[in-house]
Specification:
- About 10% of the residues lie in helices and about 40% in strands.
- The chain has 4 helices and 30 strands.
- The two termini are about 15 Å apart.
- The protein is mainly beta and about 500 residues long.
- The protein is elongated and about 65 Å long.
- Strand 12 and strand 13 form a beta hairpin.
- The strands form 7 sheets. Strands 19, 22, 23, 25, 28 and 30 form a 6-stranded antiparallel beta sheet that branches.
């Protein structure tokens, strides 16, 4: 870890007996009792401990678009923002206030690193002329010997923009300087909703972009509003005009993948499907197959019923299909955090479940669960771990500056990582924090109410990032929590043998 004002401060703490004494006191009465003695309480989590879904809870995230890069999944999402009326009451989500795109990533599918909010649209936004930033998707491609990253998004329902970067988490730039798809693009003027992009880079490096949606009056069975176009070699231009896809009972939400040598176009069905011959249901994720990415596509089946079927809260269904290490996963959104908060307004959070690809190449229908995905591998605590990497949390927010994200705590706040492998023994945990008002940090294996392994009192006046060492005895694979009794900035941690 980077050392900032460490040696003299640590020596003073050890001399004063602060490190060990605080830990022993916390063990004696437990974190909850210690907080209650200070008229504090552990912050509530918006997800059940042990569940993988939703992926994160520190804010909302809808319409997940997922990109794999070097064994890691990056999830880009619409940043749902709670809207309130003049009296402070929560209003129905109008989507009109969405100017940012959220990004998280993981290589184990349980611990997700929060990379913050990307300021895409509106005043001060990266994309010139964009008013909103909905339904993102991302891709990467080697161009002129360098890997380049592309983030596509929709400007409300009236066009699609694209940002570029040299790394999967940015910084992002508006290299094109305008929207990529507009109403003036050939064969796009009559698309009801010019939105919901999906991108695919084929094996030969050719990019394809699918988009569109909406149901013209009387055309529920064959809306005719889906489009696909071949992208130029730079991924920032069009190689030809968009063509119409014949998509039955389309509503919105294009998906584009290649599985087993065949192309998959997936989408959300509309809400007027009663009595259809395909037996598809309303607001569900359907999929079609083709031998050519430009189509024509043939209907193949229903992949995922509306999430209301599983979780009781119905709403628009938006998805992404992605593969990692030969396994396929369905990412979608659900209103579970909204429900846990006791509000309603169609504010959505990301979830994921595994897809089974059958021997005949068909996709088995996915059941939505709160358990979610299994952890692919243990977290390595002996490498510096960003504090913004979490499996669960309560009472924290994530701050961001110059591309770095960290946790901003509140009294009673906590974070948790799942499945950290401490091997035969970890003797200490290094923390990097700043806390102008001081406060206590407890290290707690298991749940935030578990037995304390160690703690440290951060002196008041710790204005800059400072490293503290907490003696612990940790071994084997364990979840690990960090609990706080004050407001401070928690940047990173690392175990040592």
């Amino acid at each position: 870890m980077k050392k900032r004002h460490v040696i003299h401060r640590l020596a003073a703490l050890l001399a004063a007996g602060v490190l060990m004494g605080s830990a022993q006191a916390a063990r004696a009465e437990g974190v909850r009792e210690t907080l209650e003695r200070q008229n504090l309480s552990l912050a509530e989590s918006w997800k059940k401990i042990g569940d993988g879904n939703p992926l994160y809870t520190q804010r909302f995230g809808a319409d997940p678009g997922v990109m794999e890069y070097e064994g890691r999944l990056y999830v880009f999402m619409t940043d749902d923002v709670i809207e309130r009326d003049a009296k402070g009451n929560v209003k129905e989500n109008s989507y009109s206030q969405i100017r940012h795109i959220n990004c998280i990533s993981s290589d184990d599918l349980v611990n997700w690193t929060d990379h913050g909010r990307i300021p895409v649209a509106g005043p001060g936004g990266i994309a010139r002329g964009a008013v909103n930033s909905w339904a993102p998707c991302a891709a990467h491609k080697e161009i002129d010997g360098r890997e380049k990253f592309f983030l596509y998004f929709c400007n409300g329902g009236n066009g699609i923009g694209v940002l570029t970067a040299d790394a999967p988490t940015g910084p992002w730039r508006d290299e094109l300087g305008r929207l990529l798809i507009t109403r003036s693009t050939p064969n796009c003027a009559n698309v009801t909703w010019l939105f919901d992009p999906a991108v695919l880079v084929d094996d030969d490096g050719t990019g394809y972009l699918a988009f569109g949606g909406g149901v013209p009056q009387g055309k529920q069975k064959a809306p005719g509003t889906a489009r696909i176009v071949r992208l130029g070699a730079d991924m920032l231009s069009l190689d030809g005009d968009p063509v119409t896809l014949d998509v039955p009972w389309l509503f919105e939400d294009s998906g584009l993948n290649k599985i087993g040598g065949r192309y998959i176009y997936s989408y959300c069905s509309n809400w007027q499907t009663d009595g259809n011959a395909l037996r598809l249901t309303s607001g569900a994720i359907e999929y079609m197959t083709a031998d050519d990415p430009m189509g024509p596509y043939t209907y193949a089946g229903e992949l995922f019923p509306n999430q209301g079927r599983f979780f009781g809260l119905w709403g628009n269904n938006h998805h992404a299909i992605v593969s990692l290490d030969g396994e396929y996963y369905l990412f979608y959104h659900n209103r579970c955090v909204e429900k846990a908060m006791g509000i309603t307004g169609n504010y959505r959070s990301p979830q994921a479940d595994r897809i089974t690809v059958r021997e005949d190449g068909k996709l088995q229908s996915v059941t939505g669960t709160m358990k979610g995905l299994k952890q692919k591998k243990p977290l390595d605590p002996f490498r510096e771990v960003s504090a913004a990497t979490m499996a669960n949390q309560g009472g924290i927010t994530v701050a961001m500056k110059d591309g770095e994200t960290w946790v901003r705590t509140a009294p009673g706040g906590w974070t948790m990582v799942a499945g950290a492998d401490f091997g035969e023994k970890a003797s200490c945990i290094r923390l990097r924090v700043s806390a102008p008002e001081g406060g206590t940090v407890w290290i707690v294996p298991g749940t935030p109410e578990g037995e304390v392994a160690g703690s440290v009192q951060i002196p008041a006046g710790t204005e800059e990032q400072t490293e503290f060492i907490i003696p612990v005895k940790l071994s084997g694979v364990s979840d690990l929590c960090f609990v706080f009794d004050s407001t401070m900035d928690f940047h990173a941690w690392q175990a040592e043998e």
